[in-house]
Amino acid sequence: MTETHEEYDARMLTLLQMIWGEGFLSPGGPQAVREIAGGFDLGGKRILDIGCGLGGLDQVLLTLGAGHVTGIDVSPYIVEGGQERMRRSGLNKKIDIQLVTPGPLPFADASFDIVFGKDAWLHIPDKAAHFAEIFRVLKPGGRIAAGDWMKSPGPYSRDMEYFFEMEGLTYHLVTLAQYGLLLHEAGFVGIRLADITDRYRAEAHEELARMQGELAGMMLAELGPEGNAHFIEDWRSLTVVLDKGELRPAQIWATRPAT
């Protein structure tokens, strides 16, 4: 984990949960988690969720059979919110949300059966070091199940740079091909990569329509006129880079060799 300062403020968290559901800060809500991790037998497994956000993802992993989930994030504000959600739900014995600092993961070798991630690793600049650490903390035969955002080949366009400005977040994107190569170089096998840009392109346009329609009153009340206008424009800029194919969401699976 390598992001070091607060970028997700209260307005952003409010907006994202309006769109994707309580506890969810990335597209698709519970169904997206089931698509990524549902093909694995999670029964009794120890899972590490890197970039866990408010813990909604981890609650879904429990419903899929996970024995214990350790969620980590670098944002104190988000971690405090996630820990409070787990206490309120009574799941804090099954889901342990921890604040970590950038750098090596604070876990022993071969600690986890599965490492999960959902649209969080895009904030990590040194992906080679990131995947090396995941390889280290996975048990032999352990697996990665993740979703992340990629880029098209070539430099960022002005539209992409404008989207980053509207987001106010730091992105470190690579192409899906580069992502797969990095996993291979880290020692993973059985690498599967699925580009889901077409699907999320349609969903993002639906989200924008909801923001301008059924969610308009709630957004205005919760975010105020300025915040409401900002996030509408943010989402419009998101649909532009998706329509152009510059932003490319994907799903990723890989395995640490058993020997």
Per DSSP, the total helix count is: 9
Structural class: alpha/beta
Cα distance spanning the termini = 27 Å
Low-confidence runs (pLDDT<50, min 5 residues)? 1-5
Q: Give the CATH topology of the domain at 21-150 and 169-200 and 249-255.
A: Rossmann fold
Overall 3D shape: globular
Q: Tally of extended strands?
A: 7
Query: If you average the pLDDT, what whole number results?
Result: 95
- Strand content is 15-25%
CATH superfamily of the domain at 21-150 and 169-200 and 249-255: Vaccinia Virus protein VP39
Largest sheet strand order: 3-2-1-4-5-7-6
Oligomer: single chain
Give descriptors for this structure.
single chain, disordered N terminus, seven-stranded mixed β-sheet, Rossmann fold, 9 helices
Structure notes:
This protein has helices at 10-20, 29-37, 56-63, 76-89, 127-137, 158-167, 176-185, 197-212, 216-243, and strands at residues 46-50, 68-73, 95-99, 112-118, 138-151, 189-195, 247-255. With 259 residues, the chain is α/β, with parallel strands linked by helices. It has a domain at 21-150 and 169-200 and 249-255: Rossmann fold (3-Layer(aba) Sandwich), CATH 3.40.50. A 7-stranded mixed beta sheet has the order 3-2-1-4-5-7-6, sandwiched between helices. Helix 3 (56-63) links the parallel strand 1 (46-50) and strand 2. Helix 2 crosses helix 3. The longest helix is centred in the last third of the chain and has 28 residues, at 216-243. It is globular, with a radius of gyration of 18 Å. 39% of the residues are buried.
